[in-house]
Structures are given as structure tokens and as C-alpha cells.
What does this fold into?
Amino acid sequence: MDLTIVVAFLLLTVPAFVTPGPNNLMLMASSAKFGAVRTLPHMAGVNIGYPLMLFLIGLGLGEIFTSFPALQSVLKYLAAGYFLWMAWHLLGLKMGVDGGAARPMRFFEAVLFQWVNPKAWVISISFISAFMVPGDNRMVSLLLITLGCVLVGPVASIIWIFFGKQLQVFLRRTGTEKFLGAILALLMLSAVILFLV
It folds into this structure.
């Protein structure tokens, strides 16, 4: 990869990872509810699961969905169902470990979640299409793309976890947990509508 391609990749990677999406919203909600430390396994699962998914797609898994578009539709509707379920549960959000879900997402749950995360699929296929070099350097470029995600992803996650922790303090003081839950549920519903349309 030449320097121009690396700069373009980094310019796209930072906003792609920092903007709201299912991973970031769930990390923020988990941090707000359970605290930053209990959210770390979830964060690790996201930041290992996503680069692994991207790498496997780069090796050719994406071609399966090109050959069998029905599988992509199944994935899309499974993701929509999961997000609707999450939105429903976010409506009853209460801060602290005594309300709502009993625990934060576990490491392997977060790793597996990447496979039904539409933003992760879109970003993976976009990055691979735009930045993977054909021919002999294909594997090197795939490894560099994956490395870029490994480096940028945790920084974005920490930002959202920190924001979630600050939000937890604010919400506990003001008692506005249900308001946050409604906003997060609305964001999840918006995401479902956008990727189903």
C-alpha cells in the first residue's frame, strides 16, 4: 500500500469507528449501567471479533454472500430482530446492576455479535473493496487493513465507554435513566429502519 492509500484508509477508519453504531451504543449503555471495568470484556470481544470478521471476509467469505444473496437477507433480518429486541429492553433501562439485564455482554457474545452487526458488515466489505490490493500483495494489504482496525477500534471503544461512565454519573444524579433508554431505543430503531430500507 502506498502512503496515499494508507492516509485515505485512516481518514475513513476513524469516523467509521467513532460514529454511533450498534457496538458503540451497546458499549456506552453497558458502561452507563455496569461501569467501565465490567464493560471491558465486551470491549475486548468487539475489538477482537470485528478484525477477525474483517480478515475472514477478506479471505473470501464475502463471496459467499455474492453467490448466495439469500444468506445476506437472512443475516439482515436476524440482525433486525436482534436490534428490535435490544430496543425493547433499552426502554426499561435502569442504572446500576439492580435493574434491567443482570450482566454486561460477555467476551464471546461480543465476538459473535459482529456477525449479525450490519455496520460491521458494511464497513468490512467497503474497506476490503476500497483498500485491498489485488495480486501478490493481497494478503499484505489485508493484514494492514486488519491492523488498522485493531489499532483504531479500541480507541473508539474507550471514548464510548468513558462517555457511558460520565453518563452514568449524570443519570444517577438526575434520575433520567428511562429518558436515556428511550433515546437509545430510538437510535436502534432508526438503525433497523435504515438498513432494512
